[in-house]
Amino acid sequence: MSVISRGSEWDFDLIQRYERAIAETAAEFKLDTYPNQIEIISSEQMLDAYASSGLPIGYPHWSFGKAFIRNERAYRKGHQGLAYEIVINSSPCIAYLMEENTMMMQALVIAHASYGHNSFFKGNYLFRQFTQADAILDYLIFARNYVMECEERHGVAEVEEILDSCHALMNYGVDRFKRPQALSAKRREARKTERENYEQRLYNDLWRTLPQKGKDASVRQRGRFPDEPEENLLYFVEKHAPQLEPWQRELVRISRKLAQYFYPQIHTKVMNEGWATFWHYTIIQRMYDKGLIDDAFMFEFLHNHTNVITQREFDQPGYHGINPYALGFAMMRDLRRICETPTDEDKVWFPEIAGSDWLKTMDFAMRNFKDESFIAQYLSPHLIRELRLFTIADQTGESHYTVDSIHDEHGYRRVRTMLSSQYRRENMQPSIQVVRYERLGDRSLTLRHDFYRGRPLHEKETDEVLRHLGRLWGFSIHLESVHADGRLESFKEWRR
Amino acid sequence: MLHVIDRRLNGRNKSAVNRERFVRRYKDHIKGAVKDMVAERNIKDMIQGGEVKVPAKDITEPEFRYGKGGDWEAVHPGNKEFVTGDRIARPSSGSGGGGGAGEPGSGEGVDDFVFTLSREEFLNIFFEDLELPNLMRTTFAESHAKKLVRAGYVKEGTPSNMSVPRTMKTAFARRIALRGPLAEELERAQAALALALEDRRSHDVINGLNLEITEIERRLRIVPFLDDVDLRYRHRVPQPAPVARAVMFCLMDVSASMDEQKKDLAKRFFTLLYLFLTRKYEHVELVFIRHTDEAEEVDENTFFHDRRSGGTVVLSALELMKVICAMRYPRTEWNIYGAQASDGDAFGADAGKSARFLRTELLPLARYFAYIEVPDDIMRRSPLWAEYEEIGQGEENFAMTRVTRANEIYPVFRELFKKEVSR
């Protein structure tokens, strides 16, 4: 086959031709994607998109202005480059390409976003479960119009207050599990009869003679609301806040929905980027093998690709922790290696996948994991050695940091567990739940913070957030910090 | 099939509204910064935009997060010499050591938030809440400004003013009115014809009826779709619009005793005034008068940039102002304002005469007169200050103030031109 183009100039026709070639190559690897849509934007528009967390449509809010000013300044001063692309988890999957990119970059981005990310969006269980790709753009438009309408009707300041408070709680506006569908009245009735019948059948007068235990407790339990602790604070506010106006409830709902939209992205960062990077690498490599692209293209490609997956070591300047692109890409490549050329070690560690069909195995991995579980499942000793990973522990009461584990026989599992738990939700944000709403009393709301590894809350910011929650709730807020053994550590209060 | 869409021509400034929200939210900080900027800058750069700092702590968005303490582990790449069980000293606080192992929030940016105000934003904040005092908007019977306002519809007018809906409505009504009776006649004739045909009447009768029908149909056809009488035009009548016309006299002493530093202060003041007026009012004229021992009217460039010096006769400038008023700005048509800057030096009777002249001749003319003194020594009462202070008593439209340092200019300026409400 002949080379598609030479040189760095691109035009719309060339983009179409590259896209077709990439689509054909992707089909060889059986990538399943949403339909694609590619949009060309300028760098200013990229800055705009940055400010609204990559969403093409956002409602007006000062915090986006702040993000915009910060990015713009960093960009103008040359501290920060712009992403080559932004991709929206929607159907059709929209990828934004910058006009400043070379032809090579456009092709790379198409392979990366329109086939890599796109197939991940379509396949991964978190995205399937929590986002509706075909509805998100419409919802964004609705959200913006609704917010702007509220501003017109109730005043910019009023709306801003509510949104500020919602933003402060946005991380706690997420459902991690599907809520059970509410039962219909008929179904509930049927269940009740079924239970009564069951009790009738098992009736034994002997039970009556047993001493009753815990009766007091049940009396105390009555009137306790909610029955189960609720971790989605914004959901609870939306449904139960005593004094919110309907439009304020809707604003809470909007920010909750947006938080939910971002939730899968936060928890699949390593996988998602690793998957997309792996595929742009594999697809472009394959196109090179087929003779569709020339050496110059390939050199430029490798240069950029290498930049993306650079992982600095902990003692090198510019080290900012683990680069999700680098880790994800390395793990994906390692997965393929384990399937294709397993070593004896791999056969011991991954008996079920060593030597299997790599496409199927990787597809399975992409579909069924998030960062935490993916690392716990697939980080191999080989990769731990290659990256020379080690764990440093900082324990309360210790005057020194301790090297907890390194890349040796004893350390592999430990390093893997530690790295995996780094991507756990509890590690990123404290666990806080609604435990009590005094519906019949002073209408105060009680939150419980469950200690995770003895880590306290950030004093000042917690007060701030409680103030925001109080604004939405309208009555007093209590926050109890509780140790795993049930010991109450501290108690905070925000009073109306 | 792939869609490639060119969005480059779509709006670029999507974030403008968010940026503006941000600026509004942190206005107080920004105002403070603007004040400092004015003091630091030289006159030419005074109106450029500039960098504004907002302390990082004021703009953080709070969330529930971990504070210091508890057990932490962190996995890092690139181990070289560590083995399990090694102990590493904690980096001393603040150094931010090797990757901040396990330190929660070590990446927290504590730098001040810096951003650049555009010239437009800068000026907006700069002159916010300032207004010319005592400005009367409606006193101008003679103002020539006219505004066209809509006043119903007329039958004559220019084609560009034609109202199509109105015209079509009248045409429609006329067509119904003219065609209605004809249509009835036609129906009747057709019925008669049908009857005649049925009764096998004579050829003549049927012919006659046929002719009648043709005639009616012809008359129906010639009812025009649009007639001259249908045309309607939007009517506009001129209405005198009240325009507040104002003239500001800028009087500056450029005598030898005004050294460069004082002139600089005075010019800063007038620069602010100039910007404020040209930006805020379309109908404000500016007259620049500088004086040594004699006064002359100059253009703004000369006023701000020319260096000339000589003796001092304050009265000359005041007299010139009066002459110009009488010639070009009659009191009945113009709001007259004056601002005078001087170091307060006046010789002999000049100070007293000037003060009297001001009180008897100028203050009755003027809506507001401000005197800014840039003295050598803040403690010393200059001759002019002493005299002015006397006449200032009880005069509503006279204000005087002293400025010794550049950073006082802006507050003083704001003080003099605060919005009426807050006075």
Walk me through the structure.
The complex is a heterodimer of chains A (496) and B (423). Chain A is of the alpha/beta class. Chain A has 22 helices and nine strands. Chain B is of the alpha/beta class and 423 residues long. Chain B contains twelve helices and 13 strands. Chain B has helices at residues 16-25, 27-40, 56-59, 119-126, 164-198, 203-221, 260-280, 300-305, 314-328, 350-362, 383-392, 406-417, and strands at 3-6, 50-54, 72-76, 87-89, 113-117, 146-154, 233-240, 246-253, 284-291, 295-298, 335-342, 368-373, 398-402. Chain B is flat, with a radius of gyration of 40 Å. At the A-B interface, helix 1, strand 1, helix 2, helix 3 and helix 7 of A face strand 1, helix 1, strand 3, strand 4 and strand 5 of B.
Put the structure in a nutshell.
The complex is a heterodimer of chains A (496) and B (423). Chain A has 496 residues and is an alpha/beta fold.
The count of DSSP E runs of length 2 or more, i.e. the number of strands of chain B, is: 13
Strand content of chain B: 15-25%
Structural class of chain A: alpha/beta
Strand order of the largest sheet of chain B: 10-9-8-11-12-13
Please give the radius of gyration of chain A in angstroms: 27 Å
Helix percent band of chain A: 40-55%
Gap from first CA to last CA of chain B: 68 Å
Helix content of chain B: 25-40%
Gyration radius of chain B, to the nearest Å? 40 Å
